[in-house]
Design brief:
This protein is α/β, with parallel strands linked by helices. Helix 7 runs parallel beside helix 8. It starts with a strand and ends in a 10-residue tail after the last strand. 46% of the residues are buried.
């Protein structure tokens, strides 16, 4: 058999799939990263723009500090970032100047690998993003083929898209991405050989398949037998269910089939134990193996999008509408011409389905993002849009506007608008997020108790004169004392 490498997705895709993208914190990354680094993974998938946004929005944490924390503790393992291109944090088209700024900041803060997956299979755009990533310093760029099921997404369709991207000189290989867990062992037996044949310059290096339908653990084994050398997986409690196959079980199964997997299972167990403790402390759910569910082949909604949708409905006290929203998404997707159900289009579909359900009338209100999609901001849709929906969308004020190709905004414009002296990191956040959220994050950075304590400890350590320090808020006090050299303390 062959040697198989693993990509850990716990902190990114596991977090999005099981914890609604909000469970992981910088402190958690700091605690688990040393053991993830010791495990021997090919890559640790650390972030998407969604993960960066939730750090600011829900935790008031500096997302780039999180990247640096990971970088400083992952001395042996590359850190990866997933992008869909065309957008960063926002759910509308992001200007090219902002995208290049974002990728520059990521590379500067420790991200060395990028997965580029254009959900519309606009391979010209994907090649452009790959070139941008290489230009700003990414060491490895992997182009994606995104699997889905529909009348238009055939093996021939995927092979043709692979040929188009294969011409790029800026990608280092391909991966097959299955965000909804729709791949089966039978499908990979005929799809992977066709993709391998279409990829004349760059090999099919990785496969990424969610365990949503319960089939991914077997599907990955089949892919390994077919020559795919790198598999994506996650650690409990962020494995299984809507996430990815459990790493420990995957390793055991690969070895049972005769493949070699060079990983440190003890380090893997310690990392998993740390994540389990954090889940218990924070009352976060744990993924569990899924039973096969045929419904996924109808709606295609990824597990991460489902968990986020459920959380968002609960926030407006409408969680009881969840099943109706998922069912309505089936019709919305067909009416939109069968877009692939992954970020950002999965969110567009679910948002429109939610509007349809809540208003009681289909397309009484058309979401701005859906109008952008129909208008062509993200490239041509794979199938025909329902004529009535298309007419309604394009006859709105937004629909009559010309698609923005992302070239109009410059870095100079951004600095003139937000501040000439801002760091690139702050400039990026202010360009793509509500100012009040960014303000709240920076304010919290100055007053966070953990930061204050760390500053005091650093000051005590650096000072040659100070031997003790005390802080008090009137109700609680904390004293730290450094013993003089040569003294002993009584037990």
């Amino acid at each position: 058999m062959s040697t198989i490498d693993l990509v850990d997705v716990s902190l990114r895709d596991g977090n999005q799939s099981i914890w609604g993208a909000t469970g992981v914190t910088t402190r958690m990354v700091e605690g688990v990263m040393p053991n993830l680094d010791r495990t021997g993974y090919r890559t640790i998938e650390l972030a998407t723009s969604t993960i960066l946004a939730t750090a600011v929005r829900y935790h008031r944490e500096d997302p780039f500090e999180r990247l640096r924390v990971a970088r400083d503790r992952a001395r042996s393992t590359q850190l990866g970032f997933l992008t869909t291109g065309k957008r960063f944090i926002t759910f509308h088209r992001t200007p090219d100047a902002v995208l290049e700024l974002a990728y520059s900041v990521l590379a500067r803060n420790g991200i060395t690998k990028m997965w580029v997956i254009d959900p519309m299979h606009d391979m010209e755009s994907a090649a452009k993003i790959a070139a941008m990533a290489k230009r700003v310093g990414f060491e490895e760029v992997i182009g994606g083929i995104c699997y889905t099921t529909s009348p238009v997404h055939t093996d021939a369709y995927f092979a043709d898209k692979a040929r188009q991207l294969d011409a790029s000189e800026d990608i280092d290989g391909f991966y097959l991405k299955d965000p909804s867990g729709l791949l089966t062992p039978d499908v990979v037996r005929h799809l992977i050989p066709q993709l391998q044949q279409a990829m004349q310059r760059h090999p099919l290096r990785e496969i990424h398949s969610h365990a949503t339908t319960g089939l991914a653990p077997i599907t990955l084994l089949e892919a390994a037998d077919l020559g795919v050398p790198t598999l994506h997986c996650a650690l409990p409690p962020l494995a299984n269910g809507a996430s990815h196959p459990e790493a420990q079980r995957l390793v055991a199964n690969l070895r049972a089939r005769g493949h070699e997997v060079d990983v440190d299972l003890d380090a893997m167990a310690r990392a998993s134990a740390y994540l389990r403790r954090q889940a218990k402390i924070k009352n976060l759910p744990a993924g569990s193996p899924s039973e096969y569910d045929e419904a996924f082949y109808r709606h295609n909604i990824p597990g991460g999008v489902q968990s986020t949708t459920r959380r968002q409905l609960a926030e407006i006290r409408q969680e009881h509408l969840f099943d109706a929203v998922i069912e309505e998404s089936v019709q919305v997707r067909e009416d939109l011409g069968w877009p692939i159900v992954m970020t950002p289009f999965a969110q567009y579909i679910v948002t429109q389905a939610t509007l349809n359900v809540m208003t009681g009338e289909r397309y009484k209100q058309v979401a701005d993002e859906v109008i952008d999609l129909i208008r062509g901001d993200f490239g041509p849709l794979p199938g025909e849009v329902d004529p009535a929906l298309k007419d309604r969308a394009l006859n709105t004020e937004r629909g009559r506007q010309q698609p923005d190709d992302g070239q109009s905004v410059t870095l100079k414009d951004l600095r003139h608008r937000f501040g000439e002296t801002l760091s690139d990191e702050e400039l990026l956040l202010r360009a793509v997020m509500p100012h009040e959220q960014v303000d709240a994050m920076y304010a919290a950075q100055k007053t966070a108790p953990a930061r204050t304590l760390k500053t005091l400890l650093t000051a005590l350590d650096r000072s040659k004169k100070s031997t003790s320090i005390s802080i008090s808020d009137g109700n609680t006090s904390l004293s730290l004392q450094r013993e003089a050299p040569g003294t002993e303390t009584t037990p």
